[in-house]
């Protein structure tokens, strides 16, 4: 077994897993855990070791204390970092800017470069840097690897990456499309050619990562040629709490006429919009129930969501010219059969035919949901970003030795 530790550090939380980088996507990790409310009086640590759950509630002053506590509990059960002889620590880093297009072994210089990208991701990169520094201190002898959410999209063609705003202002301020969820889009798009029985270089595909955050990508021969998230993860599809694409003039209107501050607009569009802002809930299970009970706001929210999703599918079909596969993944994409059905309804003339019985099967590994006659194959492939990060970190760490 080659175990890797994967860390996803937020401003007041750390999500972590220890997993075998050779595991199947559906395998349970050896350890998974979440430290929450770091820096608040009521900190919480939930950790699952070989399927058994342990909980601790006490104040956790900082990220360092949180990780130390988690490692302590793991060690008590014989699965501490020292017991496992970890091959690598993989860190999820949200923004790699234009600098990082591939995972990188972390050294002091790389930490500084990630820190320099904070203006592009003020909500995420500071916590990512904290997590890296703390983990390097506690585990100094293990290679640490940064895996960037933007990496898969670093080589988008300029026509897809650049915005039609003043070039000088955009250039000086790093304003361009970076794209996010790249680890998932790459992980999924790498599995689809095998499902099709084709060489990756010959496959044109659309990947729909529909979770609480949601994004679409167009991938040609293994390279992303477009994606729906933009300079920030606010753009594109309608999401659980984020608005997705809107007219930028709305922001001026809310500021000038409605009198909202820039911070209030930021919170409104990121946390109080999307499905939640329209219906009051952001979970598709609840949304579905509300629709079945005749709730008109829920129905309207759902229609706006599907309409926007179909817009992207249509535009990526044109961008790709020929589409071999459309793949659904993440919480909504893997589980909400009604979303899959409505997203692709009535597209038979474009060679897309969903098989209702296949689509109705429960989520259980990668599977085809199109008919045998469908020219465009439609798949559901579970994503596993932690496994993808573990694989990348392990590959880079072992190549170094
Ligand atoms: P993710 O961000 O990928 O973890 O996705 C989380 C979202 O997936 C939740 O907010 C739900 O909207 C959705 N979801 C999870 N399980 C189901 C399910 N069984 N049916 C419908 N939607 C689901």
TrEMBL record:
Mg(2+) binds at residues 8, 385. The keyword ATP-binding applies. GO terms for biological process: acetate metabolic process; acetyl-CoA biosynthetic process. The active site is at residue 149. ATP binds at residues 15, 209-213, 283-285, 331-335. It is found in: Cytoplasm. It holds the Pfam family Acetate_kinase. It catalyses: acetate + ATP = acetyl phosphate + ADP. Belongs to the acetokinase family. Catalyzes the formation of acetyl phosphate from acetate and ATP. Can also catalyze the reverse reaction. Homodimer. This is Acetate kinase.
């Amino acid at each position: 077994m080659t175990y890797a530790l994967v860390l996803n550090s937020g401003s007041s939380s750390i999500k972590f897993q220890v997993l075998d980088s050779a595991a199947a996507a559906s395998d349970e990790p050896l350890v998974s855990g979440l430290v929450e409310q770091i820096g608040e009086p009521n900190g919480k640590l939930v950790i699952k070791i070989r399927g058994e759950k342990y909980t601790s509630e006490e104040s956790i002053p900082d990220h360092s204390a949180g990780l130390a506590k988690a490692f302590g509990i793991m060690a008590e059960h014989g699965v501490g970092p020292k017991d496992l002889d970890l091959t690598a620590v993989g860190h999820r880093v949200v923004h790699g800017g234009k600098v990082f297009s591939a995972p990188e072994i972390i050294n002091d210089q790389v930490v500084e470069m990630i820190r320099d990208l904070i203006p592009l991701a003020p909500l995420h990169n500071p916590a990512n840097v904290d997590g890296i520094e703390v983990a390097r201190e506690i585990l100094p002898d293990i290679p640490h690897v940064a895996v960037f959410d933007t990496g898969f999209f670093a080589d988008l063609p300029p026509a897809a990456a650049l915005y039609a705003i003043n070039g000088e202002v955009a250039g000086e301020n790093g304003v361009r499309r970076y794209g996010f969820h790249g680890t998932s889009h790459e992980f999924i798009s790498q599995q689809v050619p095998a499902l099709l029985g084709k060489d990756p270089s010959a496959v044109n595909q659309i990947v729909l990562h529909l979770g609480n955050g949601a994004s679409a990508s167009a991938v040609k021969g293994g390279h992303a040629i477009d994606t729906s998230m933009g300079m920030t993860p606010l753009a594109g599809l309608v999401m659980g709490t984020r608005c997705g694409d809107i007219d930028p003039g709305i922001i001026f209107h809310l500021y000038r006429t409605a009198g909202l501050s820039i911070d209030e607009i930021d919170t409104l569009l990121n946390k109080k919009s999307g499905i939640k802002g329209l219906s009051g809930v952001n979970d598709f299970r609840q949304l579905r129930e509300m629709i079945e009970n005749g709730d008109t706001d829920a129905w309207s929210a759902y229609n706006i969501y599907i309409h926007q999703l179909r817009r992207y599918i249509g535009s990526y079909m044109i961008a790709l010219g020929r589409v071999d596969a459309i793949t659904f993944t993440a919480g909504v994409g893997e589980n909400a059969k009604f979303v899959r059905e409505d997203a692709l309804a009535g597209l038979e003339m474009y060679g897309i035919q969903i098989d209702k019985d296949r689509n109705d099967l429960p989520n259980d590994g990668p599977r085809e949901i199109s008919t045998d006659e469908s020219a465009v194959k439609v798949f559901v492939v579970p994503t596993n970003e932690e496994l993808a990060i573990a694989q990348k970190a392990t590959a880079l760490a072992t190549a170094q030795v």
